[in-house]
Amino acid sequence: MGSDALILGGGFAGLSCAVDLAAAGLKVRVLEKKPHLGGRAYSYKDPATGDAVDNGQHLFMGCYRKTRAFLARIGCSPLLRFEPGARVDYAEPGGARDLLNCPPFLGAPLNLAWGVARLRGLSWGDKWGLVRLDRALRRVAREGAAPPELDRVTVRQWLDSLGAGARLQRRLLDPIALGVLNDDPGIAAATGLAQAMADMFYRGAQGSRLGLSTGGLSELYTGGARKFIEERGGQVIESRRAAGFIKENGRVDGIVLEDGTQVRAQAVVSTLPPWDLRRLDLPAAARGPWEKLGAAPIVSVCLWLDRPVLDREPLIGLLGTDIHWVFNKSRIFGRRGDGQYLSLVISGARRHVALSPAEILEIARRDLAACLPRFKDAKITAWKVIKEPFATLSPCPGSEALRPTPGELSPGLFVAGDWTRTGLPATIESAVASGQAAAAAVLAARGNAKIASED
Fold it and tell me: How far apart are CA 275 and CA 278, in angstroms?
């Protein structure tokens, strides 16, 4: 069985690539190794509560322009709800609260300046430490790329060099870095933070709006993408794992499945993460420095409570705790009732991924009790710990230079994924951007082949 294009992986990168190719009239086949679509961003129905559980809570941004266009193309835009602006509540041990509120009517980056000016937990001396960072981010926004030297220093080193004080970093910049990079600011390179902040706060006020899926992640995009592909004659096949590539005359001509079945295709697009792709029998031309890229873990805790401990906040950041973010899934899902469903996130969870679920639950209890006074009176009626040891690319110094450009890696083999070099950190937007770039490269290669044959 053959096809015009074979896509390995059914996450955001693979499905966005397949949708673009199907829209261009190609016969597309998507193969996903898991028994469900979604790659590293999926959800499932919890059997005990009946609620949708994400394998890791994801926050969307207004600056996710390619993601929003992809969702619109497959008819799923209504499932993603954006807040009017960037508003994030914070709580810390002892119950003190703070609020970053960046109203969109002020325009960018004045909306950020307004939000920072009104933060109660920072002195004016702390806030003055943003001046040089502002200049650096304006340069990134103006030039469209972060300077190469940021790939050689950590977020902490970069912010220190710009005069950002410890309190400013701890209360404002570290939460942003953890959210977009999924790694500790002392480990992650500065490149991704510069890319993300320039996009969020310096390219239009709408870029910093917060978006949340009103259902599980899989519901948001996998069904719509499958329908789009299949309506155009394509196939989406689950529970099929690639074992190697068919290589003929120096070119990839398809894949071999674990059961020995050969699947032919004029172009193969791998959206597998680097730690999975490098295990395959790759052509020599496809090998490269990208094989050194590593992963960063995320740990999530789902809690079902017998009473609310948050009010109208869709999410809240915790300062000075192991838990970084608390998402109010009851509000996000529009669910009414006496109880409350929360999703807690530990980003860059290197110290936590080896702990037992019971130990992680106790950390969650401690942090919520310290920061949310009403939690002490609540009873946990159900809970679940989800570990993703290979959640995202670890953006350590030097990693940006190792990321390959999405497109043709070797003759007949194309690569995409959030981990490829898209000018963004390894986010959902990077995944979609890479999928679309790979699709464009496949179409360009077909056009070039057609021209060559005509000549």
Answer: 6
